[in-house]
Structures are given as C-alpha cells and as structure tokens.
C-alpha cells in the first residue's frame, strides 16, 4: 500500500484500504474496548449493589432496633375457675392484650380451642379454663 493510500485510509477510516494485519489490529482494538466497557459496567454495577445493600441493611437494622424502654412480653397460661354468671367474653376481657391479637374474637376462639370447647356459651360454674395472657418476662 502506498503512503498516499495509507494516509487516505487513516483519514477516512475506510477498511477497504487497510491490510489484513491492520484490520486484525483494528478488530483487536475494538474487542479490547468492548471488554474494558463491560468491565467498567460490571464495576459500576457492583459498587451500586454494595451501596444499595449497605443502605438497606442500615435501614433494616435501624428500624428493628429497640428503644431503651422496651420490655419483652411472653405468653403465659393461667387456670381460671368459672363462677356462676361468668361467660367466656368476660373472662377473656380481663386477659385480652390488643397488642398481640388481631381482634377480640380471635382471642376468644383461642381460649375455646385450648379448652376444647365447641361453643363459647357452654361453660358451667366450677369448671376450670386455661386462659393465655401476655406479661413481662420473668
């Protein structure tokens, strides 16, 4: 290839005027650029992932942290003797904790299932009922 053609090829970047080795060099350069571009993207994505995880974990730990006044409560069971005129709703009202149960009906149904009662109105004076309640950890 003459010097004039080399200059023309370099000016117009036209592969028709390049030799096989120059084409190979040019393709290798493009391939290296693609590899470098992929590596840069991988590094950027890795850094973004690490930053996201750090922020996520920090926020998760901060929201689940307990304040200094937190007192843990545990579930206990108590045996209650039914007196004349008592019903399960009155007994459950004494031990119900809205913080640990979705609603009062669910608490009454738990008492019925613990004591194997099919109907909450079928209790008699003198019976013993097991009632769950929450209190501070002892």
| CATH class descriptor name of the largest domain | Alpha Beta
Low-confidence stretches: none
**Gyration radius from CA atoms, angstroms:** 39 Å
Give me the secondary-structure category: alpha+beta
Q: What portion of residues belong to β-strands?
A: 5-15%
Q: What number of domains?
A: 2
Enumerate the strands of the largest sheet in spatial order, edge to edge or round the barrel. Answer: 1-2
CATH homologous superfamily heading of the largest domain: LysM domain
Distance from first to last alpha carbon: 94 Å
Q: Which whole number gives the mean pLDDT?
A: 85
> What's the main sheet like?
2 strands, antiparallel
CATH topology heading of the largest domain: Membrane-bound Lytic Murein Transglycosylase D, Chain A
CATH architecture of the largest domain: Roll
* Number of contiguous helices: 4
Give me the strand/helix succession.
HHEHHE
Key structural traits:
alpha+beta, single chain, 4 helices, 138 residues, rod-shaped, Membrane-bound Lytic Murein Transglycosylase D, Chain A
Q: Would you write up a description of this structure?
A:
It is a single chain. With 138 residues, the protein is of the alpha+beta class. 54% of the residues lie in helices and 13% in strands. It has four helices and two strands; from the N terminus they run H-H-E-H-H-E. It has a two-stranded antiparallel sheet with strand order 1-2. The longest helix has 45 residues, at 20-64. The N and C termini lie far apart (94 Å). The model has no long low-confidence stretch (mean pLDDT 85).
């Amino acid at each position: 290839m003459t010097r004039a053609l080399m200059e023309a090829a370099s000016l117009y970047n036209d592969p028709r005027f390049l030799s096989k080795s120059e084409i190979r060099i040019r393709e290798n350069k493009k391939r290296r650029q693609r590899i470098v571009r992929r590596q840069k993207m991988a590094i950027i994505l890795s850094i973004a992932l690490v930053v996201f995880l750090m922020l996520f974990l920090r926020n998760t730990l901060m929201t689940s942290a307990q304040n200094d006044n937190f007192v843990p409560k545990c579930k206990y069971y108590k045996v209650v003797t039914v007196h004349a005129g008592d019903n399960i709703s009155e007994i459950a009202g004494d031990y119900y904790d809205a913080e640990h149960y979705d609603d009062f009906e669910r608490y009454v149904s738990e008492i019925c299932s613990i004591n194997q009662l099919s109907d909450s109105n079928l209790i008699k004076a003198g019976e013993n009922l097991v009632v769950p309640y929450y209190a501070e950890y002892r």
